[in-house]
Amino acid sequence: MAKALLKQRLKKHWSTLLFLLPAVVLGIVFSYIPMVGILMAFKTELNLFRYDVFDAFFHAEWTFSHFRALFGGKEFLTALGNTLLISVLKIVVLFPLPIIVALCLCEIKNKHVSRLMQSMIFLPHFLSWSVVTGIFTNVFAQNGIVNNVLAIFGLSSDNIVNWYTQPGRFVFLVLFTDGWKGVGWSSIVYIAAINAISTDYYEAARLDGASKWRQIRNITLPLIKGTIVTMLIMRICYIMDAGFDQIYTMHNAATKQTWQIIGTYIYERGLLQGNYTFSTAVGLFNSVIALIMIGLGNFVAKRTTGKGVI
């Protein structure tokens, strides 16, 4: 019976499945087959000078030394702590902002003004992190706009410094630039969810005398709760990714050692120093923690809100 039902569905939806075939093939080729490289984390250093890649892999001995070095190294633990700190702060501080922006944009009745505002806040997303860092390096420079404005309000000239060279202000700059670049683009999902809500709910609420705040609290937010939970779980999935592109372009001699994250740590140990097996071990640990976090986030979301992604 089950086989007959499966054949019937395949026959009915074969054209739709055909469209999925390229995505499945690309996923297998570029996502699943490369996972064989995880085995490098359990191998000694590859002798690429004597053997080619595959021969070097089979000649290398099995070992757990990379994981022992991983948890015994102060540099990695510092990078792990920085990654978690920046990621958690991005979730706590930045995650609610796209929801607020979407609520504000959906309240603009003039279509031309709404489109103009959306275009303005979406534009930074299309700038590379190199460009964004270049812009704000000048803005927060010693003679930049920010210090000049602060000087107008009587800030002592002794305290006017280049913000990008101050390790204590690095996290603030990370949150500020990431919010400036990504909040507008992230709000698209919530704007679509809000626009999908039937206007009948709001008309009934207005007839009952509900204020705008009560409409948002009792209609909008409950009806987009599923979208919010899904996006939150997806963000938790990337908690071990504090933003390699952003942090790498923002690093300088004054902040590089203090604010190393796992992404930049893997890049330096793997590509710059040629320690591929150790960097693979770090990447494997990173992926395992991310998998645990998305499962934990989905479990907590289901227990608290009744909604999840799985």
How big a fraction of the residues is strand? under 5%
N-end to C-end Cα span: 27 Å
Shape: flat
Give the fraction of residues assigned to helices: 55-70%
Number of strands: 0
Q: SS-based structural class?
A: mainly alpha
Residue-averaged pLDDT, rounded?
A: 84
Radius of gyration: 25 Å
Number of helices: 16
Note the run of SSEs as H and E: HHHHHHHHHHHHHHHH
Largest sheet: none
What are the segments in which pLDDT stays under 50 over at least 5 consecutive residues?
Answer: none
In short:
With 310 residues, the chain is mostly helical. The chain contains 16 helices and no strands.
What is this structure's SSE topology?
Blueprint (H helix, E strand, L loop, with lengths): L1 H11 L1 H19 L20 H7 L5 H8 L1 H21 L1 H11 L4 H12 L6 H11 L5 H8 L17 H26 L3 H9 L4 H12 L1 H13 L6 H7 L11 H11 L3 H30 L5
Helix pairs in contact: 5-10, 6-10, 7-10, 13-16, 15-16
Task: Explain how this protein is built.
By secondary structure, the protein is an all-alpha fold. Helices cover 70% and strands 0% of the residues. The longest helix has 30 residues, at 276-305. It is flat, with a radius of gyration of 25 Å. 21% of the residues are buried.
Task: Write a concise keyword list for the protein shown above.
310 residues, mainly alpha, flat
